[in-house]
Design a protein that fits this description.
heterotrimer; A mainly alpha; B mainly alpha; C mainly alpha; A: mainly alpha; F1FO ATP Synthase; B: 66% helix
Amino acid sequence: MEGDIVQMGAYIGAGLACTGMGGAAVGVGHVVGNFISGALRNPSAAASQTATMFIGIAFAEALGIFSFLVALLLMFAV
Amino acid sequence: MAEEAGTGLVFHPMEPFKIHSLFGGEVHWYTPTNATLWMFIGILAISLLFIVGTRGRAIVPSRVQSVAELAYGFVHKMVEDVAGKDGLKYFPYIFTLFLFIVFANFLGLIPMAFTPTSHIAVTGLMAMAVFISVTVLGFMKNGAGFLGLFWVSSAPLALRPLLAVIEVISYFVRPVSHSIRLAGNMMAGHAVMEVFAAFAPLILFSAIGIAVTPLSVLAIVAMYALEMLVAFVQAYVFTILTCVYLKDALHPGH
Amino acid sequence: MANETHAVDAAAAVAGHAAEAAEKGGMPQLDFSTFPNQIFWLTVTLVVIYWLLTRIALPRIASVLADRQGTISGDLAAAEEYKLKAKDAEAAYAKALSDARAQAQKIIAETRSEIQKELDAATAKADAEIAERLAQSEESIAEIRAGALEAVQSVAAETAAEIVVALGGKADKAALSTAVDARVKG
């Protein structure tokens, strides 16, 4: 019985952790959206900043991956 | 279990990441495993592309040779742009990492394949190697001046100690995020495809399968396309972050 | 659905995947017993890739790229040279053309003056001939005219004498000729 409650908590926690991915999605969208709006204003500078955009995406996405990892840990490792 | 037997739905999203010995038996540190197999297939593919493909040394390249040259030029330019001219000395190391990651990622997309880069042990080792060598290099090149990386001289004096603490923490989190980003991305994509794949045979067991099975097959196709993109982008991101860290070590003065 | 199934699995903890996974700590990534194995083989792999790249692939690609760069810049230099040559040739051609044109102009002028000279000579000769002929003609015309006048006078005098005789007069030769002379000249 005790184990069941722990399991339940872990699964609920896993589900909650998944909401973090939404934040990552917002972040990545924000980065790319701003990049595109900037690129449309000044297309000649866009090519040189693509690498910066990918770094930004990577940083924003990493946090979503962390929440996914927490969910996985709760589901399989706790 | 009874329900599982009834519907036939089996979820093993972690199944493709399991490591097992190729020839049976315990997994010791020297045992050839499926990870070994796929790493060696990666080596084989790299040699096919870069050694067999370029054996013509043609001035006007064949298709394979031009792919190899394209990859070379891509990473070479990245290192030069991000880390500067003096970073080119470390180009072979960075190119090795890039090739290993990109081939592991793409070969892992083959059905039934194993993806070495989805394991924290693999990405963690690479990230730690980058972290340690970059830190050592920074101290060797700049001496104590490397610590200037943490002392943000453009900020107001009162804020600098606080910023220094934050910078130090973010510096030491680098290998963690560096490794987990790659492993997590690889793992997430494969696990999601695995979950969709588990839904696919539903049509054999239940009426709602008529609606669910085509949807899940479509979802797998879409995820696969996304994973193709992710496989490349993550290799690119790992490499470019390595270049950024290298630049910090070579030119710590921001 | 995934959670549910897995919950059932895990809770039941029967033999099979879930129990095995639970034994191993769930995620294969966190199964630390496989870490030495992966680290060892990863090191081997990376060293092999590094060795292959630095020994064979990278020098080869770098040399091919350098060769290509050399070929391209060599070709460009050759093209530049050819361009200069073409420019020289063009200049020479233009010079030859203008020379030829000047020569032609000269020849034309010479020819024209020669022709003009000939023409002038011919014209002068023709003029002289014409003048001579004209003089001759005028002379002969004057002769003819004089002859004719004479004839007219003599005919007129004879006719007048005949007419006078016919009218029953006596022909005075001297008076008649004076009268005819006066009439004809008149």
